[in-house]
Amino acid sequence: NNNFSSALGYKLHGDDKTSGNTRIEAEFSWKNSYLDNRPKEGSVSKTGIMANAFYDFQNDSDANPYIGIGAGVANLKIENSDFLGIKGRESDTLPAYQAMAGITYESPAYTGTNMHIEYKYSAIVGTSELLHTSSDPVKNDFSSHIFEAGLKIDF
Fold it and tell me: Is residue 91 within a helix (H) or strand (E), and if so which, with residue range?
């Protein structure tokens, strides 16, 4: 399994006390898995573009929890799967959503550099109807539970 994601965001600033706790971001992600953990059985990949919004719960420590939601689109591809009867590549693009929760640790030594750990649930709305060679639809639930660690740099 291979996973990659990258995001560019903006922290909202305003006059009231809580507006500085809100962040928005655009995220690109790519995930790839081999069917039955073997390359010869084919692979499934998901490429997503999401718009996310986060709320940071500020406290007096260097570790602050946050929650977030996101919506966007995901492109699914299945390649060379004898098991599913697919020769070559089949793809489908569908709406997607996600929900996140995590903790950001603000480094006192490096101003503007934050580390985070996060849980993310990501899913596709509806079902993909990628076709067998017999033209029978294959209906699947494309969702994932992801634990990640990352680095945020403010500039």
Answer: strand 86-106
